[in-house]
Amino acid sequence: MKFEKIEMKWHKIFENDILHQPDFIRQIEVKGKKFCAVKHEARIIVTQAYCPHAGAGLSGGACKNGVLICPFHRYEYDLNTGRGAKGQGDYIEIYATEVRNEGIYVAIPEAFGFLKRLF
Ligand code: FES
């Protein structure tokens, strides 16, 4: 069986001036798929939209000391690594972001588009 390499595609999600705004957590949509965007200490972190524990929208949560806290059962996820707190045994996806002259971009796997076409 041959596996194809998953291509990452960069998408602009914010203008650069958002880095000067107060910290936030909000849901964003890229190519029809939802993600959670966190502005924390002058950087943008993009994670999967829903908590792996029971599916809560992570954008309804809180951010404290670089940790994203789920609004439902308060599971915690490190925003640098995506790792769940000790004992949780889970993690969230963190997507690469880049600050460019023309805005802030996130890298999303093209496979999402492929899977969307299947279902
Ligand atoms: S749904 Fe997120 S901690 Fe339970």
Feature tags:
single chain; three-stranded antiparallel β-sheet; binds FE2/S2 (inorganic) cluster; 119 residues; 42% strand; mainly beta; four-stranded antiparallel β-sheet; Rieske Iron-sulfur Protein; 1 helix; 7% helix
Poorly predicted ranges: none
Q: How would you write the strand order of the largest sheet? A: 2-3-4-8
Number of strands: 10
| Proportion of strand residues | 35-45%
Query: The CATH topology, please?
Result: Rieske Iron-sulfur Protein
Structural class of the helix and strand makeup?
mainly beta
User: What does the largest sheet look like?
Assistant: 4 strands, antiparallel
Q: First CA to last CA: what distance?
A: 22 Å
Number of helices in the DSSP assignment:
1
Q: Averaged pLDDT, please?
A: 92
Domain module tally: 1
- Say which CATH homologous superfamily is assigned: Rieske [2Fe-2S] iron-sulphur domain
Instruction: Identify the overall geometry.
Output: globular
- SSE ordering: EEEEEEEEEEH
Bound molecules: FE2/S2 (inorganic) cluster
CATH architecture: 3-layer Sandwich
Radius of gyration, rounded? Answer: 15 Å
Give the fraction of residues assigned to helices.
under 10%
CATH top level is Mainly Beta
